[in-house]
Amino acid sequence: MNDGFLSIVKGALLHDVGKVIQRAADNPTDKTHREWGYEWLKRNLDDNVAARAANTHHKEDEGVFDTNNGLVWYQSDNLASSERKGKEGAEEGKWHAEVALASPFSRIRNPNNLDQNPPLAFLPLLKNGKGIGEAFKEEPVITQGDYKKLLQNFEQDFNDPEVQRPHSIDFLLMLFEKHFSGVPSITMKIYGGLLNKDEVKEKHPDISLYDHSKITAAIAGCMYHYYKETYPEKWNKNELLKDEILDVPENAEPYLLIGGDISGVQRFIYTITSKGALKSLKGRSFFLELLTEHIISELLDKLNLTRCNLVFSGGGHFYILSHNTPSAEKTVQSIKSGIDDYLFKEFQGNLQLHLESLSFHPGEFEDTSRLWRGLSEKLELSKKKKWHHRLAEVLKVEMPHPDCLKQSCEVCFREDAALKELPKGDENLLICEPCYNQHLLGEMLVGISKGEYPVLYKLSTTPQDKFIKIENVYYQLKKGWDKSVHSEAVTVYRINDLTAKHYSHPKSVYLPLGIYQHDNLGELSDASGVFGINRIAVLRMDVDNLGKIFSQAVPEDYRTFSRMASISRNLNNFFKYCLNTIVEGRDIDEPSDIVDRKVKDRGRMLFIVYSGGDDLFVIGHWLDVAEAAFDINTCFEKYTGNPFMTVSGGIAINEEKYPVYQYARDAEEGEKLAKKEKDSITLFAGKCFRWSDVKEIIERVKLFTRFLKRHETFLAVDEDRIPKTFFYRLLALSRQFTEEGVLVLPKAAYLISRIKLKGNAEDILKMKEVIMVHNADEWEITEAAVLWTLMLMRKGGGKNAGI
Predict the structure, then answer these.
(1) Beta bridge partner(s), residue 261
(2) Tell me: the pLDDT tens digits for 280-296?
(3) Of 565, 609, 645, 618, nearest in space to 318 by CA
(4) Which has the closest alpha carbon to 15: 89, 73, 72, 95?
(5) How far apart are CA 101 and CA 113, in angstroms?
């Protein structure tokens, strides 16, 4: 990338930094935010050209229409802030720095009733450590002191002596996300004199300074390439392109939205045996993350764009904003062809990249409906014609590899590839080379889960120690900075790491990933006997009505490029970055801990197989998985602040040797059942409950356990407080009522009369109230709670454990 391009993009990214500086100043109105920003950048930035963007991006700025740089900064700022159109007349004349940022989820209506709008929810200005972030119902009071603290934190990172100079775009992008994702891009104070309450709410700022700046930089990068390639003589001679930039003809489409989708993901991840399952699962899932990142990196590098142009990446999908030029189109097709060749050879066509694009006019930054819909349709059509251009190769019948004449790969059952033994120390398995590589990747992941600041190195030459190769590029995972690899790396990915001093490599990239794995979890068997019955559980979960949310629930007038990108980014942030903290349970407020196992101290015995976009797959000890599911739902409610945004999921439970693909299917069936109801979870017995009912189940389990005594790894009957057979009798009664509809109240009364409960008087009364009901819903809750209690009481448990 040449210096001219980098200066334009860097200037566009930093153009509004003066807004933070102004809001932190003791005399904020002495200068405009452009003047504050320009003076700060002149002192702190090693790029005088980029610094000019701070006071050369508004129409009233001197010289904005005199240079192509100024025109690009001005127009990219306009296009990125199209959500502000129509607000000018509703702004008070006075400047208001105390305005808080509304959550972008506040713009999402009830997908099932578009006449229902959520209440505004507000985001904090300052982030609080590892916390997942919570949207507030009441607008927080933001002071000048808050902005002073924010600016101090930003400047400390910006000027860290260990950071590579000049600052890279990737580093600046990380800093903006870290510090400015809770900063409003505008601080408008809306008055209520001429507007009703709903109109005031509609106009409250909900786009962060980070999201606005990132999109501005992405557009500026596209404009640079488009105008340089479309008008080379004028651009190279610095002739002014005012009309071409500001008045784009209706039939011209300077921009390209590129969409990528990897198909075959489900089958690829889950079609494996239980042999070496943990490492194979983890390795396969992470390989898909790596493959997606590899494709994104190739596209951005070959298109000469920055990570500002990566609009979204998650769930095997990604979107990139590019320039629409002949060279860009050729680049996209060339990369697709190369990846296709690699995937077909490596995985027999089980994985395929679908890469499509849609060109558009700058007017569509204001309403992106056609863009997302059109690109989605092209991707779906591509998936329906999988490998149509290579049908002869797909249908070709081949003899098994000589190694597979007696047996196939013991992990994926493949028969066409040479087999090799796993490294010494594992089971003596014969597996194909791709499975071997993914197993090694899984081993690397076990190692980095114990590191506080894991690193992924991208290398152009074969490294020492374990690595994974994609095309001609090598990737190596480390649990921390490695001096022997660092200087040789093409790119250094800092995983979930927002520590500025760690960005010493000139090509350091922030990469959020769901990688949590308990330190003591080496294989699935390690999670089986943690507490109660020996069982493993799988959780699959995703956001309800996601298609409707993006196509209908966001009002048409609000579907600007910046807003849709902001909603997508925040969703992805929850499922990739925040999920690590949530499922671990150590650093969230009041994690679910039903039998007081000290979750905050020990963490949870599970690991994230996959998370990103809007869904997740978690596997581990049955109780840890269940508690994590409840915490995910609770945290998602707090994170979005929107009661119309919900998640549903399914939990499947079985023995540790149960086939992984069957676990996945069972959990998927449970998830499908829950998604029919919405805002629900399917629990162990295959029964679906609303999350509100789950809270009742948990409270009932806690009530039951107060009559039991605690051992280290299980609960047991305290015969001084409750009869030994009580819970089995209660389970039989609940099942008789829920399955047969039999009147059980007399039997319940008889049960109460025959037992002698001892303990807290209030608990005894609650127990009697639980039993003496004639309500189907209540008996279903009781059945689930009793079943759960018996699982907590089961010490071990094999095939005939009865659960």
Answers:
(1) 317, 354
(2) 888 888 999 999 999 99
(3) 565
(4) 73
(5) 26
User: Contact 579/608 with Cβ under 8 angstroms?
Assistant: yes
Alpha helices in 159-237 (DSSP H): 169-180, 197-202, 209-230, 232-236
CB 511 within 8 A of CB 495: yes
Taking only the tens place, the pLDDT of each residue in 569-617 is 999 999 999 999 999 998 898 999 999 999 999 999 999 998 988 889 9
Instruction: Report CA torsion sign: 102, 103, 105, 110.
Output: negative
729-786 confidence digits (pLDDT tens): 888 888 877 776 666 667 777 677 667 777 788 888 888 888 887 788 888 999 999 9
Q: Residue 312: which H helix or E strand, with range?
A: strand 310-314
Q: What is the 3-state secondary structure (H, E, C) of 633-665?
A: HHHHHHHHCCCCCCEEEEEEEECCCCCHHHHHH
| Euclidean distance between CA atoms 120 and 102, whole angstroms | 7
- As beta bridge partners, residue 431 has 420
> Higher model confidence: residue 695 or residue 132?
695
- Cα separation, 195 vs 665, whole angstroms: 52
- How does residue 427 score in pLDDT terms, banded at 50, 70 and 90? low
184-207 confidence digits (pLDDT tens):
998 765 544 444 555 556 678 899
- Tell me the torsion sign for CA atoms 393, 394, 399, 403: positive
Closest CA to 278 of 520, 95, 478: 520
Quote the pLDDT of residue 92: 41
Name every residue whose Cβ is closer than 8 Å to that of residue 360 and which is 6 or more positions away in sequence.
253, 255, 256, 257, 324, 370, 371
Residues 526 and 620 sit within 8 Å (Cβ to Cβ): no
DSSP state letter for 722: S
**Residue type for 615, please?**
D
DSSP letters, 503-554, are: --STTEEEE-----B-TT-SSTHHHHTSSSB--EEEEEEEETTHHHIIIIIS
Amino acid in the structure at residue 265: V
Output Rg (C-alpha) for the chain, integer angstroms.
29
Structural contact between residues 709 and 715, judged by C-beta atoms closer than 8 angstroms: yes
CA distances from 797 to 522, 523, 585 (A): 21, 19, 26
Strand partners, 106: none
Contact between 185 and 205 under an 8 Å Cβ cutoff? The reply is yes
Q: Give the pLDDT of residue 291.
A: 94
Q: Which amino acid is at 590?
A: E
737-742-748 Cα angle (round to 5): 65
CA distance 70 to 64: 5
pLDDT level of residue 86 (50, 70, 90 thresholds): low
Closest to 730 in 3D by CA, of 687, 778, 684: 778
| CA atoms 732, 736, 739, 744: torsion sign | negative
Token look-up 């499947």 returns: 652
What's the Cα-to-Cα distance from 646 to each of 123, 125, 467, rounded to whole Å?
A: 19, 25, 39
Q: Determine contact, residues 79/365, Cβ cutoff 8 Å.
A: yes
CB atoms within 10 A of CB 89: 8
- Residue 119 is which amino acid? P
Secondary structure percentages of the chain, helix, strand, coil, to 5:
50, 15, 35
* Long-range contact pairs involving 422-429 (C-beta distance under 8 Å, separation at least 24): 422/276, 426/276, 427/275, 427/276, 429/275, 429/276
List the beta bridge partners of residue 537.
620, 653
C-alpha–C-alpha distance, residues 802 and 799, integer Å: 8
Contact 259, 251 (CB under 8 A): no
Pairwise CA distance, residues 168 & 692, whole Å: 47
Distance CA 606, CA 624 (A): 7
How many residues does the structure list for the chain? 803
Tell me what pLDDT residue 94 has. Answer: 47
Give pLDDT tens digits for 228-237.
999 999 998 8
Q: What's the sign of the alpha-carbon dihedral 755, 757, 758, 761?
A: negative
CA dihedral 588, 590, 594, 596 (to 10 degrees): 90
**Can you read off the two tokens belonging to residue 351?**
């994985």
